[in-house]
Amino acid sequence: MNPAHKALRDGTAEAHDRVDAAFAAFDLGDRESYAAFLRAHAEVLLPLEAALPGARVTPDWEDRKRGALLREDLAFLRDAPLRHPGETPDDGEKADGAWDEAAIAGALYVIEGSRLGGRFLARQLPHGFPRAYLDADQPSEKWRNLLERFEPILYQPAQLQSALASAHSVFAAFERSAKRWAKG
Ligand code: HEM
Questions:
Q1: Ligand 1 centroid to 11 CA: how many Å?
Q2: Are 164 and 5 in contact (CB under 8 A)?
Q3: Which domain range does residue 110 map to?
Q4: CATH assignment of the domain containing 166
Q5: Measured from the CB, is residue 131 less than 6 Å from ligand 1?
Q6: For 6-23, how does the pLDDT look when each residue is reduced to its tens digit (9 = 90+)?
Q7: Does the C-beta of 110 come closer than 6 Å to ligand 1?
Q8: Number of folded domains in the chain?
Q9: pLDDT digits (tens, 9 = 90+) for 137-181
């Protein structure tokens, strides 16, 4: 594990645990609950993917985006009545110019890392449930390549702090969204 990766992983372990616990409230074996789970992801991921200038850190950012897969799964589940959480969506967007490379790296770490748990969750889905988003193709070198790109960006403490702050804010947005949709 390179030092930038270790620092991001250690620095956000608790945030990951909270997000994991918040999403445990959904029953992935239940169509309606799975739709709410995807909606909770969509409300954070779609605006964040649109706002994040990820190509400044990884040139294949466009190919990494999973918003289209998420929309596809939600469209497939269109007959599931979606519950509305009754609060305004939390889009995690930053003002223009607030994305320095370190902040981009922190957000990419969270978004791309979420694929690792997603694949594990996809195995819990009943046969016939759409899974394009959770089971998205993810060769392990894509994760490694991304982490290697972080190293030259995050070797200074100030940059690392900026990445951690950004990662924490993305994790927190997912946690809030999960809680809103779980309440339904
Ligand atoms: C929904 C419940 C979740 C479960 C059960 C879960 C589970 C996991 C598991 C098992 C791993 C390790 C996989 C491996 O090392 O091969 C992992 C890694 C990770 N997950 Fe999650 N996850 C969940 C949600 C999320 C969400 C919503 C996010 C972010 C939005 C996220 C971000 C990450 C990150 C960044 C890593 C990489 C950690 C590292 O090795 O640096 N996870 N998750």
A1: 14
A2: no
A3: 3-183
A4: 1.20.910.10
A5: no
A6: 999 999 999 999 999 999
A7: yes
A8: 1
A9: 788 899 999 999 999 999 999 999 999 999 999 999 999 999 999
